[in-house]
């Protein structure tokens, strides 16, 4: 049985001009210890997916329209807010992009970590402090015991993100959701934080969902990848498959439009147009208006996410016509 | 030999911190945002400027345009000293140098129509608002890939990428020679980022522009630049042709920076394979003595803590400031 | 540029100012406030036509009449028509409120913009400002009217002096933020002078918080004027102001409660209307609150 099952998750937002769907029919499953990368650009719905799983979207204006989230056999989408609180922390934990605003400036980092543990476990003050120091140590804060009494403003951005991870790990969650965990950080610090997340996965065996817009972060960390566009999952596969044999034209575009660090290219392969706003999504396939391979049938109906090859799904009616022939098929 | 279009010599910008005391006297330390930087930018080339947050790359870009006043040093544009220019003479120089900003939302006045935004530099330099400027603005819009219908619209009606095109049109309407692109594509979605990079390259070719391309994304900088300069805590630590600097970086910081870029394929995962530099970037407010990178450098030697390494040229065209490198060719750390 | 082929703009074709107006008139607080304040303002404007008795005409025969068919709001201790006095008082309140707002709009903006934009002037202007703001508003107003002598014009001047520093501070803080915006930098890079930058880029964008502030200021001015008259340092009796009527009615509160109550209610409606209007303006114009909605 998988650790997390998301089935047909659809979340809507009430706006001035009626309800819009931020994500539609998002389904995937995640095993213990696995790292799932969710990649997408702004408006793709990747963050809303994470917040929907956590039950953290403000309602109203947000509303779960349909679908369910099953974590360790329990259906989270039926739970009361109080029941969800027992899941958040020891079950599923989350870290965010902005380490500055995610920490409370008036409490020391030690107090904030201990507070998180205290919410779920009864420990003696000495044990509590010991655990907090251990967590800080685990995430690579040097001389952790001394830094317990520091306040967030005394730390750099990278260190604050480490503290956030320590807080998220304090209750030993089985699943960690990291929403753009390195986007606000410099590249040398990003590398450190990604290494840290991988080390912690190996040590604690927790599953991780990494949400990012950066294909490089996916390449560095993910086992499986979910590509989202305009609120829908458009491709899902193991990480190597996505990079070697992307089936959806959008995924291919995403991989081609970033310049290389080693090869010269005269011109970047850009995807024309802009990401559609939720209120102005085109009919049929949402990528069709930007897709150079679009045919009339593309704008006729929403293409479903289909299993096209073993362990590889994509939502494109032309996926198999366009994909390069697999070398395996050529072999006699 | 051609003369450089932009040349800076020992340019510094120090920001006093802590403000003034009650009697108006300065107290407290100074933030050395840019510290004795010397650079040359040749006509028609793109110089990429990379570095992490707080390294002073944005401040340097603004110094070159005289948007902020240097504390010390000299600035030469097109053969003429412009460090202390004022009034009409400064305005005249401004015709030839422009800037494209990072934030497509903050860079356009929300209360002005697109036509007025792009025409403003023309008006400032003496054009009369009318059918003539409107035509000129429309043709500029066309060059950046926006239809003339956009003229009467307001910034909020555009997406981030479209706004960036408007910002580029405003920067180019006076046909400048030199343009500073300050993180001009950093805030855009990757699929849109490639469009803007292509546009900037097309315009450079068509209009013979010289770019200073400031960014933190090393792959974008590699793609667009001819030469690349690396800054760390207010100092330029390495400058070279892009192929030289990416293939064989000399400064340990440049090496670490390149090693930290995430892999482009899962088969090249860097964890456990590449050298990581430990620790955080120190504050520019109280930078380390000697070589500023010595607190994080894997090859640190006693001399690094004491003496600021000078920028030397061990290989023709490749400048680096590191005690491991002799001014004589050879001797790079590996 | 074929890369743009599929791209189009948002469907909104409205001028931003018109969009703002539309949002305002859909805002319940704003509309309620505008209605309350509008009723008082219209009554004040129509004063010469809707009153038939001179507000200062004494009629000892008719004193202390409670509201009735002939005297809608009754009469006071001198037999003056309270309807006339309240309506003319409304007019005076509106004139004073509008004048104080106008003074603030001009001088508050000038001082605030100068302090916020020119770093050199900032320290000097703001220290004078701080000194003026250190006095409790009403005490400072009393001090000014005591020196200048009680009169309607001096009330306006006094309230102007009291409130301009507050307005200036609000303008200054928006200007400081706007000064650092990249579009201002872009204008500098294009060679724009200070005047152009202030007029085209800074002041139009500083207007929103300023308009909000001025609507609240109108309420403060009306309230302060009433307070000054009530304390006997405002417009000289028998000038019909709400403060004066209430001051005179205070002695007869038990036997003729309508004298003090009627202008009190008028004052309350005005201030409440303006505050609701201001809240509505703030919700619509202040982008920080708009994001939260």
UniProtKB/TrEMBL annotation, chain A:
UniProt xrefs under SMART domains: AAA (SM00382)
Keyword Cell membrane included in the entry's annotation: yes
PANTHER family: DIPEPTIDE TRANSPORT ATP-BINDING PROTEIN DPPD, OLIGOPEPTIDE TRANSPORT ATP-BINDING PROTEIN APPD
UniProt xrefs under PROSITE patterns: ABC_TRANSPORTER_1, ABC_TRANSPORTER_2
All residue ranges annotated as the ABC transporter domain in the record: 4-255
Organism: Humitalea rosea
Subcellular localization(s) per the UniProt record: Cell inner membrane
Recorded GO CC terms: plasma membrane
Name the record gives this protein: Peptide/nickel transport system ATP-binding protein/oligopeptide transport system ATP-binding protein
SUPFAM superfamilies: P-loop containing nucleoside triphosphate hydrolases
Gene Ontology molecular functions: ATP binding; ATP hydrolysis activity
Lineage: Bacteria, Pseudomonadati, Pseudomonadota, Alphaproteobacteria, Acetobacterales
NCBIfam families in the record: oligo_HPY
Gene3D superfamilies: P-loop containing nucleotide triphosphate hydrolases
GO biological process, one term: peptide transport
Automatic annotation (TrEMBL), chain B:
GO cellular component labels: plasma membrane
GO annotation (BP), single: transmembrane transport
Membrane-protein topology: Peripheral membrane protein
CDD domains assigned to the protein according to its UniProt record, in alphabetical order: ABC_NikE_OppD_transporters (cd03257)
Molecular functions per Gene Ontology: ATP binding; ATP hydrolysis activity
Keyword annotations of the record: ATP-binding, Nucleotide-binding, Transport
Record's keyword annotation contains Protein biosynthesis: no
Residue ranges constituting the ABC transporter domain according to the UniProt record: 17-258
Superkingdom of this protein's organism: Bacteria
Localization of this protein: Cell inner membrane
Keyword Nucleotide-binding part of the UniProt annotation: yes
Pfam families: ABC_tran, oligo_HPY
NCBIfam families: oligo_HPY
Family: Belongs to the ABC transporter superfamily.
Protein name: Peptide/nickel transport system ATP-binding protein/oligopeptide transport system ATP-binding protein
UniProtKB/TrEMBL annotation, chain C:
Entry GO terms, CC: plasma membrane
Membrane-spanning ranges: 29-50, 92-118, 138-163, 210-236, 256-278
Membrane-protein topology: Multi-pass membrane protein
Record Gene3D superfamilies: MetI-like
GO aspect biological process, one term: transmembrane transport
Lineage: Bacteria, Pseudomonadati, Pseudomonadota, Alphaproteobacteria, Acetobacterales
Keywords annotated in UniProt: Cell membrane, Membrane, Transmembrane, Transmembrane helix, Transport
ABC transmembrane type-1 domain ranges (all copies): 90-278
Primary location: membrane
Presence of keyword Transport: yes
Stated family: Belongs to the binding-protein-dependent transport system permease family.
Localization terms from the record: Cell membrane
Provenance organism: Humitalea rosea
Name recorded for this polypeptide: Peptide/nickel transport system permease protein
Cited Pfam families: BPD_transp_1, OppC_N
